[in-house]
Amino acid sequence: PGKWLLKPSRKTFMFLFVITWLVVTIHSDEDYYKLLGISREASTREVRQAFKKLALTMHPDKNPNDETAHEKFLKINRAYEVLKDEDLRKKYDKYGEKGLQDDQQGGRYESWNYYRYDFGIYDDDPEVITLDRGDFDAAVNSGEVWFVNFYYPRCSHCHELAPTWREFAKEMDGVVRIGAVNCGDNSRLCRSKGVSSYPSLLVFRAGVKYYGDRSKRSLTQFAMQFVTSKVSELWQGSIQAFASRVGWLITFCCSDSCWNGSVVRVCDVSLQDGLVKVGWIDCTMHTDLCGSFDVTSSTTALFPPDSSLTQEGSVLFLKTLDAREIYLQVLQHMPDLETLTKNSFEVGKVDCLSEAQLCASLYIQKPCVAVFKGLGIHDFEIHHGKDALYNIVAFAKESVSAHVTTLRPENFPRDEKVPWLVDFFAPWCPPCRALLPELRKASIQLHGQMKFGTLDCTIHQGLCSMYNINAYPTTVVFNKSSVHEYEGHHSADGILEFVQDLANPVVVTLTPETFQELVRRRKHAETWVVDFYAPWCGPCQALLPEWRRLARMLSGLINVGTVDCQKHHSFCQSESVRAYPEIRLFPQNRRDQYHDYKGWHRDAHSLKTWALSYLPRASVDLSPEDFRRKVLEGQEHWVLDFYAPWCGPCQHFAPEFEVLARMLKGTVRAGKVDCQAHYQTCQSAGITAYPTVRFYPYLGTTRVSATLPPPPHTHTHTHTHSLLTLIYTHSCFSLSHSRSEDMEVSMLTAVTLLSSLMSSTRDCSSWLSIPNPNLR
């Protein structure tokens, strides 16, 4: 009673078979964490260390008689390639190997010698902090001075510098943060910082590159230029400072050889947070003064606040001149932090043994650092990053200005009028920790529009189970009765784009009825790209943020839609959709025809290039005769793309140029010149790089006047202002680019310049080449 018993049909058995097959497939995946022998909370450095250890023993070069050595090594290499990458790691944690079908890496590896001598140069050096894309910004924006070594594993000069860099890091420990970035694993990060040679040594917070000698002494002198410190030289007239009840660290120098300015400055920097003041006394000049302290040989002494020479044990004479040891001994003899209670929250610590009820009400179960936002004990955020000082400092600064709250069952959003973005996470999960600072950035941008909270699923398992959270991090937007799971990149920009799409959707959700109306019976001039997907499909989930980005890129040119094949299963079957995701383009003027996407990469830029290639051409090919007769001697404005068929960036830029031609249609004619077929024409025009976009205005007395449509997207470019200034002085310009990532900005910059030029009344007798600051 109370149950419906259905006779199993053939479809039911088929459904059960599919589900069983999926479960078997998922559970038959290799566990990458077990392959490397690491826990799921392992850091990127620990992933590298574990892989290197295995690589040195399992490499085929060391196992020539093992026929399976190659296959075994490919498995651990694939595991390393996935777990070292933040985005791939999240996909793997959430979907297993199914979520990685579009990212086939690990098919090649290096020789044994590479892993032995070149791999992870600084991974075993605690004083050198290895930085990756996920933690670089948090480190260098912490307020401390960072001196970072950008190196490449195969660079001989990098290996020559490594021993000196290690010794330098030990000496500067506690003064300047010494970091290292492997540009072999973080090429995008290195390019974004302008690194083009190795090793490159850069000081962050000052933005200065080091070009000097690579000795430890020279490096130390250079780094100390960016450190502010104040060391006082004491004598009989200034010694009364002791009466001010301020602690002092004093070096007594009884010989010329004892003075080490850098050591004292190091100590001063290490202690400049107000613990003690730092000074020195030249005992060769002030013998009586040093004698009053019972000092007869060079030494360093700590005078805590209210200390006295007459009070035995109150002054600590240190037996070392090592800066790090001095710093640690000073910390050991400083007064402890004030113990706080539930009624006295300012700065300090809480003893959860004596304040057990308070800690239990906040669900604090282990030692942690928390920032309270000034709205009582219920609005706070817990630090889940590394215990390194720079991480804690960066967290405190960000958290105070951000609007992220640590959630508990008592304040979890339910039926709220204001939308909430909730991050379900686990503290041991590295992608979760990388996402937290990005949430803080996004919360500042969206303050007043959306609230932000984090929920620790290792503490609140029941609440996470209620919302079917089975992977970390899972980020969800609760908007009254609507729930939307975020499937984008772990960045503030990605979150902002996602929220923007929720407010103003750019992707059309299609049903069987709207598909027939909008796609099948589309207007002759319309083009559609449609993603047929299933919500349970890992690659489909990975495609979603790229699909939304694609829709924004193609806005006004091509319509972008999706069909949920789990909800509309029969319809997808009738459309012969057999696999997910299935991407189809429905072109103009051909209602019964579509084109399948067969490309390997499903990122927005690759999909955009493919989709734009099906639009009708708005530009024309020009022969040498056409160039002379129509462009140089004609009475129309022309914008030309000089290209070569073998040029990769030219192929990437070709669809962008067609967009430019379409936007300028009726005002400026667009043409293309093949510089491989017409080399002399391009040479006579002064073309030295491909692709080059050049504008040829009509120079006669008749002036074409028209208002050009603005670009479909709003972009900013640091070079635009200087270009606009030049364009009012010269009425011809040329843009050359050699990097595909600049192509979209190039096209939009060209549109801006052309629009400005059309309102100019100046003449020109020759074109003007304008350099691109992004080129190297």
UniProtKB/TrEMBL annotation:
Subcellular location: Endoplasmic reticulum lumen
Record GO terms (molecular function): ATPase binding; misfolded protein binding; oxidoreductase activity, acting on a sulfur group of donors, disulfide as acceptor; protein-disulfide reductase activity; protein-folding chaperone binding
InterPro entries cross-referenced by the UniProt entry: DnaJ_domain, ER_disulfide_reductase, ERdj5_TRX_C, ERdj5_TRX_N, J_dom_sf, Thioredoxin-like_sf, Thioredoxin_CS, Thioredoxin_domain
Any one GO BP annotation for this protein: ERAD pathway
Occurrences of domain Thioredoxin (ranges): 117-232, 485-616, 618-732
Residues of the signal peptide: 1-28
Gene3D superfamilies: DnaJ domain, Glutaredoxin
UniProt entry keywords in alphabetical sequence: Disulfide bond, Endoplasmic reticulum, Glycoprotein, Oxidoreductase, Redox-active center, Repeat, Signal
Sequence ranges assigned to domain J in this UniProt record: 31-96
Highest taxon of the lineage: Eukaryota
Pfam families in the cross-refs: DnaJ, Thioredoxin
Entry GO terms, CC: endoplasmic reticulum lumen
Name of the protein: DnaJ homolog subfamily C member 10
